[in-house]
Structure formats: C-alpha cells, structure tokens
C-alpha cells in the first residue's frame, strides 16, 4: 500500500502528538528527557507553516501513520523535525518516502541545505539518513543520550 502524503491540518494535532509519543516510547525515549520535547505541536502553524517551512503527514487508508516537519533555520537551511513512522508500519519504506518528500519540499521552498538530529538509540533513523546521503556533523552527550547532528546539501531542481 502506498503512503499518501499531504500537508498537516489542525485536526491532525491529537493524532500526530500521539504518534510522536508512541514512536519515542518504542525506542525508550520520552518528551522531557533533555532531548525530546512536544511543546511545538500546538504551534505547528506558527513554527513550521507560517515562517516558510512545512509539516507533512502520511496516511494509509485515511489513517495518519507518518509525519515530518520542515522548520526554517535561516534563508538557506531548514531543519527536518518530527520524522516519525508508527511502529506498526515501520520497515515498509514509509520513512524513506516521508524523508524524500520532505527533501523535495525543501527544494521547492528554496532551501539549499537540511539539518537534523537523532539519537544513537534510533538505529533505524540513522540508517535512513545514511541511505539518503546525510552526513554526520557532530555528536553531543545529553544525559545518557548521544545526540547525532546531521546535514545534507540539497540539489536545486533545474528549470527549463
């Protein structure tokens, strides 16, 4: 079944917040651990959409099972945030589909580079970023978590 990707709607808020919490719990993480937080969810319009970024959700049979946001850092760089796939739907290519959609959207919005972070515990996320040619920039220890910061240069779409 193909993941259908669309833009976030306000009515998605409770669903994506629950998805965020389920996905973190699946790897032994939780909001408030020093790395992860969830206070941006009620402010998606302000922090992602209204300032030149975007927030996408992925649906299967009308049910949201994936998500990811683009939060502008400056005029050239956007941060990939909240990339999540429900544990029941992982290992089916939905994370790759969502990341590719976010990368394509970033190019459409005129950004030249992406940045993001994950933890060493999130092995599937690290493998996904590696497959998509992201490169590690640095690591930081936050409590008992190793946070890995990554980036990727974007290739602008040629116009004819």
Descriptive notes:
This protein is α+β, with helices and mostly antiparallel strands and 160 residues long. 28% of the residues lie in helices and 34% in strands. It has helices at residues 13-26, 44-49, 94-108, 123-131; strands spanning 4-7, 54-60, 63-72, 77-85, 113-119, 135-142, 145-153. The chain starts with a strand and ends in a 7-residue tail after the last strand.
Q: Summarize this, please?
A:
By secondary structure, the protein is an alpha+beta fold. The chain is about 30% helix and about 35% strand. The chain contains 4 helices and 7 strands.
Topology:
Elements lengths: L3 E4 L5 H14 L17 H6 L4 E7 L2 E10 L4 E9 L8 H15 L4 E7 L3 H9 L3 E8 L2 E9 L7
Parallel strand pairs: 4-5
Antiparallel strand pairs: 1-2, 2-3, 3-4, 5-7, 6-7
Descriptors for this entry?
160 residues; alpha+beta; seven-stranded mixed beta sheet
SS field, number of helical segments: 4
Biggest sheet: strand arrangement: 1-2-3-4-5-7-6
Number of strands: 7
Low-confidence stretches: none
Q: What is the arithmetic mean of pLDDT?
A: 91
Helix content: 25-40%
The ordered string of helix (H) and strand (E) elements is: EHHEEEHEHEE
Taken as a percent bin, the fraction of beta residues is 25-35%
For the largest beta-sheet, the strand count, sense and barrel status come to: 7 strands, mixed
Going by helix content, strand content and strand pairing, the class is alpha+beta
Tell me the distance between the termini.
34 Å
Radius of gyration: 15 Å
Name the shape in a single word: globular
């Amino acid at each position: 079944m193909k993941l259908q990707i669309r833009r976030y709607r306000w009515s998605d808020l409770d669903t994506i917040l629950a998805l965020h919490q389920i996905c973190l719990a699946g790897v032994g993480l939780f909001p408030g651990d020093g790395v992860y937080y969830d206070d941006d969810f009620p402010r998606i319009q302000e922090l992602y959409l209204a300032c030149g970024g975007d927030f996408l959700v992925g649906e299967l049979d009308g049910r949201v099972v994936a998500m990811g946001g683009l939060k502008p850092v400056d005029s050239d760089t956007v941060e990939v945030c909240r990339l999540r796939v429900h544990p029941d739907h992982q290992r089916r290519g939905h994370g790759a589909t969502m990341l590719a959609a976010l990368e394509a959207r970033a190019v459409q919005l005129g950004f030249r580079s992406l940045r993001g972070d994950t933890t060493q515990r999130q092995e599937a996320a690290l493998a996904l970023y590696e497959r998509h040619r992201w490169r590690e920039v640095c690591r930081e220890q936050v409590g008992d978590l190793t946070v890995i910061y990554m980036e990727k240069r974007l290739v602008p779409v040629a116009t004819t």
